[in-house]
Design brief:
- The complex is a heterotrimer.
- By secondary structure, chain B is mainly α.
- Chain B is 75% helix and 0% strand.
- Chain C is elongated.
- Classes of the chains: A mainly alpha, B mainly alpha, C mainly alpha.
- Chains A and C meet through helix 4 and helix 5 of A and helix 8 and helix 9 of C.
Chain lengths: 240, 61, 218
């Protein structure tokens, strides 16, 4: 983390790694599609619609993971003064928002044939929708503030305040007995899912996660270029 | 079993493909345009992105 | 230190009362929302009785949010924010003081007016007063959470529009618990959660708002 703190070194690292990351993401996503759509058998209860889970679960985890990443980055902005923290937070926001939206959309599409309803106002779905609104709020706040340093700090504060939603999402299915199923993977005692479903799930999870990291690196590199260009232009204007 | 299941599966994967491809396209486009803008500026001023930031700024204007 | 906090409280209260706008505006807005919804829904009295508490809570939320961007902006505009930042009193306590002033002028009157409007909404006997009580417990949390949004947007020209977006996700659980407290099955759990929201708000909101004010000023 500290080795990469230098923006120059990070930029060089990102430039070197990005082609490989793209390739890896493509391979894993292709493998995930093959596993999810062809290899995995239809569920004896849900039939073909179980294949939606292979997108829905990773998207939901990435949506929550994105906000967690942004929260750690916010600590980096406010507490540790890490030079790349705000760049990471800025890059992660649209990515996390997109995966949160996907989780909501695929969850809704999964819900209709499986439980007969597009939506239900239970604890987990409501707090997940709140997460999506918070993503929009964070991106809106950053867009509304002109000074980059001030925007970095204010967005960091908002991100940290909003982090309380993440444990709420996690535990809402335990606290309120509702439609959404309780945890079946990260449990004491190991996963309770059949391997024929677990393997495609993990492959898709890997694929989408690598995609997330790839896009994150690319967006961070782009933002570093944008800041560099702005700095150069300012200096040129001052010199003139 | 339930009817029209494949339609739901298709819809879910289609939306996912739309969103992810759009995300990748947007990322790639902004990356490329910033890269071009920075290269154009450096070409004019003679400064190289990485080496200038490494401490040799101010020279070669 | 207590004296300076009381001074801040007194100043904000005086400004609100003399300004004429804030106190009356929120109450009128509350009245407007609570009256408009039955117009939109229609004369189904049974339905109104069922969703009445939710209408009151929604109205209270919107009425609280409507003037919240003015919580810190007047201080920013006339320069007294710099004075508050420089004073020896902790900024978070000053924020708490201003939030208290806001609640006394907005949240408290709403909670008092709610039972009267509850009767208009055909709530069964006892429920209007009970809903007012839940609002009494819940509106402080709404004000405190709103203060965070107000502090984050203090130097934005049109920050008022952004405040509800920023604050809404945090207020939704408060509203959910507030309305749940009016239903028999989960009343006591919901009340406990409202109290918890108040306590968490009293601790977290001033700290977050103070940090935001400091970040906005540098």
């Amino acid at each position: 983390m500290m080795w990469l703190a230098n923006p120059t070194r990070f930029s060089a690292f990102a430039d070197a790694v990005l082609p490989w990351a793209c390739a890896l993401a493509t391979v894993l996503i292709a493998a995930g599609l093959w596993q999810g759509l062809i290899v995995a058998p239809p569920d004896y209860q849900q039939g073909e619609t179980v294949r939606i889970m292979f997108i829905h679960v990773p998207s939901a985890l990435l949506g929550m993971g994105g906000w967690t990443l942004m929260s750690i980055a916010s600590l980096g902005v406010l507490v540790w003064r890490h030079p790349l923290a705000d760049v990471a937070a800025q890059a992660a926001a649209p990515l996390g928002a997109a995966f949160t939206f996907l989780a909501l959309a695929t969850g809704s599409i999964w819900g209709k044939p499986t439980w007969g309803t597009w939506w239900v106002w239970d604890g987990r779905l409501t707090s997940f929708l709140i997460l999506f609104i918070m993503y929009l709020g964070v991106m809106g706040l950053r867009a509304a503030i002109d000074e980059p340093a001030r925007a970095a700090r204010l967005v960091a504060i908002l991100t940290l305040v909003g982090f309380i939603d993440i444990p709420i999402i996690k535990f809402s299915v335990d606290w309120w007995n509702t439609l959404h199923q309780p945890a079946s993977i990260l449990r004491i005692g190991g996963p309770s899912i059949h391997p024929s479903i677990l393997v495609p799930l993990i492959v898709n999870m890997l694929g989408l996660s690598v995609l997330f990291v790839t896009l994150l690196l690319a967006l961070m590199r782009t933002e570093l270029m944008r800041r560099r260009l702005r700095g150069l232009r300012l200096r040129a204007a001052e010199a003139a | 079993m339930l009817e029209g299941q494949t339609a739901y599966v298709f819809a879910a994967y289609a939306i996912t493909a739309l969103v992810l491809i759009g995300l990748c396209a947007w990322t790639f486009r902004t990356y490329r345009s910033e890269r071009r803008a920075l290269a154009a500026f450096e070409h004019r001023t003679g400064q190289d992105d990485l080496t200038a930031a490494a401490g040799r700024e101010g020279t070669g204007t | 230190m207590i004296r300076s906090l009381m001074a801040v409280l007194r100043r904000d209260l005086t400004l609100a009362v003399r300004g004429g706008g804030a106190v009356g505006l929120s109450l009128v807005f509350f009245l407007g929302v609570v009256v408009l919804l039955p117009f939109a829904i229609g004369p189904d009295l049974a339905l109104l009785a069922r969703i009445g508490p939710a209408i009151l809570w929604l109205g209270a939320l919107l009425a609280t949010l409507i003037g919240l961007d003015r919580l810190f902006q007047p201080d920013l505009e006339d320069g007294s924010l710099d004075g508050l930042l420089a004073s020896s009193t902790p900024l978070s306590l000053i924020v708490l003081s201003k939030a208290l002033a806001h609640w006394l002028c907005v949240g408290l009157p709403l909670a008092i007016a709610a039972p009267i409007l509850g009767v208009l909404l055909n709530l069964p006997p006892g429920l209007p007063l009970w809903t007012g009580f839940t609002l009494l417990l819940g509106t402080p949390a709404l004000t405190l959470v709103g203060a965070i949004g107000a502090a984050l947007t203090v130097n934005l020209k049109r920050g008022g529009i952004l405040v509800p977006v920023l604050v809404l996700p945090l207020t939704i659980p408060i509203v959910i618990f507030g309305v749940a407290a009016t239903r028999d099955e989960s009343a006591w759990t919901a009340l406990t959660m409202l109290l918890a929201a108040d306590l968490i708000g009293i601790v977290v909101a001033p700290l977050a708002a103070a940090a935001a004010l400091r970040a906005a000023q540098t």
